[in-house]
Amino acid sequence: MAAAVLERSFIEICGFERETATRVREVTVNLGVSALPGGQKFPDSAGAFHYEESGKLLSVTSNRLIHWSTSGDTVQLVETSLDTNLLNNVVRLKFTHCTVLPGGVAIQETLNNVIILICTNQSVHRLVLPHPSRMYRSELVTELHMQSVFTDVGKLSLQDSAHSAIIPTSAGQTGSPLTSTAWLSQSGEAHYAVAPPTGGITVVTMPPHDSPGPVCVLELRRSSMMTRLSGWMPSAMRGDQSPADLVLSLGVRELEEDSFIFALCQDHKLRMWSFREQACLLEADMLDYMPACRGVKRLSGQGHRLHLAFSPSTGLCVCVYLSVPHRGQFTVLQLVATDNQRYSLDHISTLFSTQETLVDFSLTSSDVWAVWVDESNASVVKYINFEHNSTGQWNQVFVQPPPEEEVHIGVDQDPRETYLEVLFSPLRFTASAILKALQIFRRGSDRLCDVSWEGLKKEVTLAVESELQSSVTEFEFSQEEYRQLQVEFWSRFYSCCLQYQEVQSEPLSLTINQNTGLVCLLRKGFVSYLLPCFAVDHLYLSFDEYLSSEEDTPLTEDPELGRDVLQLVQCVRAVSDAVSGEMAYEMEKALEHLQSPERAAELVLEHLLSNDSENVVEDIQNKLQDIRNPMAAMMVLLRELDLETDSEPVPEGPLTPGHSLSVRISLSQLFGSSAAVSLVCQAVCHMTMTRAMFCRDLLILQKLYLRFGDNVFLGGGAQLLQLQQDLIPRSSHLLSSYHLLKHVSQSLAAAVPVDILDANLQHLTVLELSDSPALSSSHRSVLSPQTVVELFYQTAARKMMVSQIFSQQQSDSLLLWSHMTSNLVHQLAQLLWPNNPGFQFPECLMANCQYTQLQEYVRLIGPWCQVNVGSRRFMLGQCYLANGEGQKALQCFQEAATEVEKEEFLLRLTGSEEEESASTPRLQYYNKVLRLLEDVGLPELVIQLASLAITEAASDINSQAALWTRIFKHHLDLGHNSEAYEALTQNPDSSMQLDCLRQLVVVLCERSQLHDLVQFPYVNLHDEVVSIIESRARGLDLLAHNYYELLYGFHINRHNYRKAGTVMFELGMRLGREVRTRLGLQKQVNCYLSALTCLRLIRPEYAWIVQPASGAVYERPGASPKRNADGEFSSEPVRRQVDILELKDLEKEYILSRSRLTLAQHHPPSAAIAGSASAEEMVVLLVQTGLFDSAQSVCQTFSLDLTPVFEGLTFKCIKLQFSGEESQNEAWSWLAANQLSSVVNTKESSATDEAWRLLASYLDRYPSSNGRHHRCVINKLLSHGVPLPDWLLNAYKAVDPASLLRLLLNFDLLDAAAELVLELVDALLGRGHQYFGIERPLSATSSSVWLPYTAIDQLLQSLSQTQTNSIVYLKVKDKLDEFHDLVERTTKHRLGVR
Question: Where does the NUP160 middle TPR domain lie (predicted)?
């Protein structure tokens, strides 16, 4: 990257502050002196001190200086660094009743301290501050902010004798000293030389700051001898007291362990005093070096100035300025030492200055720099090399002109907006000037303090608008009248700002860093820097007399071509002078509205030709005819104006391994302070403004060439053709480019909330751009606000440019001002140049959320720049995304896709390890954009772009599958179920298809959109769907998810009733095992009922299902193989036995589950155990709860014995019979759960009665063989000692009297047993046989009858053993005898009949 050609001239760049209130600490020093009579005032002055190592990269003082300004009794000191921002760097010292003398401030550095010497008309002061290298002892200073040397100045006791002393006055001396100088000796003593009004020099000496001692005063006058007295008693050098030796200017230099004091006196003589010898060693009359000096001797020479400069090569040089009306001159002399300690002055050069009033000048080892003010109070700065200057031609310094006195407002512009834009542009006004104008405009109302830049703009708007409103007396007026009022009041405020800006811009001094060549112009309100001027800018900015006097230009080595270039530039300047402000505005507006620059130039030319009253065009034509080769001259200018380069900047040069850590850290800070940011970016702004006008005027001149045709072209048509087809389009393109750069360099960056920055960083991370050099997160500048170019410089460009510069030079080389600044400005302009391949600037705007500015940048560049077209479309898409315009963003992203393989930014966007699977860069690009759209949350756009990307991936199955998966996902998220299913079916990858299918099932289930899920056809996917749903059903909580119901509905919808029944039966089984609640039992009943319904819809031969064996483990598809305890894969599991369940089996399960539910309903605690209870267990549970109907239903279904039911019911009856009222009431609940026979009973019955009635009804309803049920009931009653009810005895007598007898005997009920035997025998004999179920009693014709003789024998045996039962025994015995007689007779009769 070749640097642009530099000229000898410089250009001023004003580093305007953006803070409205600089934090100044004020320190007052009061030594108790009274003000001197007469109150002599001195003009404001300024100066600067440059650190010795300010040109060394590795020094903590690199690019660092202290500058000061004096005004009356005040000295303001400011420490500035171009590398880091300094804290507490401004201090204002106020010396009560004293006036700071001209030349009264001097700063010197020692190894450990920075020492400031200040001399007022009554006192001398010394401030001892720590040296920056001692404040930061570590070599590696990484802070973005550093403390200034003034940080602790408030802790110093400046009234102490170590810091201050009063200058004693000689007897009879009146008035104030006129000038002074101060210096620090090698021994550490502070010397102050003042020029009293009586002539001569008074030197006040303070002892070293670390060793107390008396203050010495010495007076130096012309005399044959000198005497020195110590202490506070001054001594006079006797001799001639003529006021001719009144000193006007002082300078001092330490040489050879002596201090030489140079004094330029009122008699035009230069005297050199030896402080050590206390003698005047040299006297020279300056008029000897002035030609035609007649009459000058009589002048007082009040404006004479003196400056010294020392360098090892030239020694000590003295420059004397002789202020003579209309012909001031600089005389440069060199001090030469001769034998015997004698000295002489050799004349080196005499330089004549212009007629302006000199403000100040500086001397270097080779140059004289001077600043004047002309009659219009404008600053004039020039410099000249006093050694090699045969023509006496001063080199130009292009100072910044004051702001325009009038603001041009177009008919389509709002006056308020236009004035605000001019007032608050980064180039024209300081914040303090606007603030002071505002105070005046508000007529001294409340002072504004610590208001922000934006706040100041609002205050200005409010003040002007309030003033306007208060002046309006009419209630109605036209829009045009209101516009005129706006212009009037805004121009009034603008004029006020102009006045204060003029005061702020008053030049005070020049300062030059001897080591680096840094040149600063110290103005009253700010400091400006002088940067080397590029040759092409120099030509355009130069005054006509300079252009006409120059014979060559560094733009070309060919002298003839150089002359042509100079003449061509003179013509361009003539065009520039002829273009009116109105036409310039029209041209600007045309560029702003993207109209053709060539067409706009033609319109301006038409205007010039039609309004050429001063024959400007004719003069231009005459000059053009003198140019031999205008095409070549134009090509030279266009080549130099074009910043296009093919090379890419080195992204991270400072971090290369070739540099040490300390060098890399220093490089990371170089030119990184807010002052440097403002300086470099304003230099770029001025350059682009100058070149935009240059290109504009050159384009107009080229159009004029075409108009003139052969009249000015010696070559004829070929050159005209080249002009029309090549040079004019190039000029037009350059004009558009520089207009763009001018726009962005003045465009302010917007403040962005932190949350938006964080969100943007997340988007950049998605794009994998967050670590790009152009997007590296850097701390924002303290400037408030920044321009977008300043933002770019600080966050990205500075590192790249410094890396580029130091890749070509050693790190220990000097930081030369001209080399560094010109390189930075030129490279920054190249980074911004739209035709260069680098795309860092738009990246930076995107990274910092400057979307409005980025959109405007893309708009301005769009029609004419063909570089990075796709990248710009991508950036515009980002802006639209940020503004919520998704469809526009998508359109931009699609347009950018066509340039992916051609542009570096888009290639970097696509190049990442994760996206290597994509076959083409364009697919990788689509993937990145899709991820971005997903991150922003725009699924509709993701679907659109993915659908487009699929057409690009025709041959890439993997990419197609990924894109279809994306489309499916976002359709599903949006609730587009049919579209999601369609995308799923299009997916060519079976595994991804299965994943999508699984997700579809899960999501639709969670949304309860089961109808859609069931209705989809699932072509070739039926088994997979079933498998997925089964897997989900078996793997998840039964109550939280409804996958079984879904699967049931799925099969029902496809008329697969057996599978539907199987699903419901499986669900019922699991509910019984896993959900031991009433709700689970209810669902189980419903499941079995649904399963029954399904099987009843099938032909009987197919009405069966397969039941997995108890405890079956369901294997999920895709599950990893399991290992045993030894880590080996388990063997193939043995197939488990399965049971075939038919309809009757399901009915049994249904009855059982219904009984479980009934049990849980009547006794909720039983639900926990009922779920997995068998039929036998259920009967027991039901009986315990009193649900006898349900119990007998289970018994009948499963063919179980009813004995437990009867025993349980009998026991309930027993308990009720002997329980209290509470139990009676509780019994009604279980009695109500059983169906009682509907017997009308008028008598009010109790629960006990109802229970007995229920038992009786059960015995009637469920008869058993041999009265088994009666027997168990009677057995239960007798075992509990409960008397047998008659109905029960009667009922059992009719069934099995023998069993009844045995039961009575078992429980030792002998009386009842005897009674039963008696009745039984009577029944056999024919008395009451119907009560015992005997059809026919004993007779010869009836069938055989029998008696339970064993039981009767047991009874008789028992009765015979006790005396109390003897009567009963006899009765039974007699009854049996009677029976036996009848049997015998009957038997004989039957035998007889036979």
Answer: 833-1097
